[in-house]
Amino acid sequence: MKKIILLIVCLFLCGCTNNAAKDAVKDYIYKFKNLDSEVMKSLEELINHEDLTEQASNAYRLVMKKQYYDLEYKIIEEIYNGNKATVLAEITVYDYNKSKQDANVYKNEHPEEFLNEDNTFNEIKYKNLQLKYMQEETSRIKYTIAFSTYYENDEWHLEKPDYTVLQKIHGIYEY
Prior knowledge:
Blueprint: H1 2-15, H2 21-33, H3 37-49, H4 54-70, E1 72-81, E2 84-94, H5 96-109, H6 123-136, E3 140-152, E4 155-158, H7 163-170
Antiparallel strand pairs: 1-2, 2-3, 3-4
Helix pairs in contact: 3-4, 4-6, 5-6
C-alpha cells in the first residue's frame, strides 16, 4: 500500500513540474483560451489603434474572444538544443482571413454600397461588413507554429512570438 501511495505521489509531483519546453507554450496558449488579463489588455490596445465605432469595437472584441476561447491546439514535437528548444504546435482557429477575403469580394462586386454621398469610400461600412463576415465564420484552419523557448532560472520561457504567430492565433494570417 505504501508503495502505491509513493508511486501516486511521485507521478503527481513529476506531472506538476514545469520542466519541459512545451509547458511554456501550453501556458501561453492557456492565457488566450482563458481570456487572461494580459491577453485582454493587448486586445484592448489593438482595438484602440483601429478606427472603429463603439459598436464595431464591441463586435470585434466578441469575435476575438470567441477565437481565443475556441482555439484548439496540440503539441507535435519538442526539439532541444542545450538551453534552447523549439516547440512545434498545431493550432486550429476560425479562418477570419477567409472572412476578410469574402468581404473584399463583396465590396468589389458592389462598390456603390460603400460610397458616401460625395463618392468617397466609406471605410466604416467596409469594416462593419468584415466584422459581419467574421461573426458568421464557421470555417476553421490549422497552422503549425514553431515556438522558440529558452531555459533560465530552472524553468522554460517562451520567446516573444513574432507578428506572424499572432496573425495565425487571430486567424487573420494571409496564406
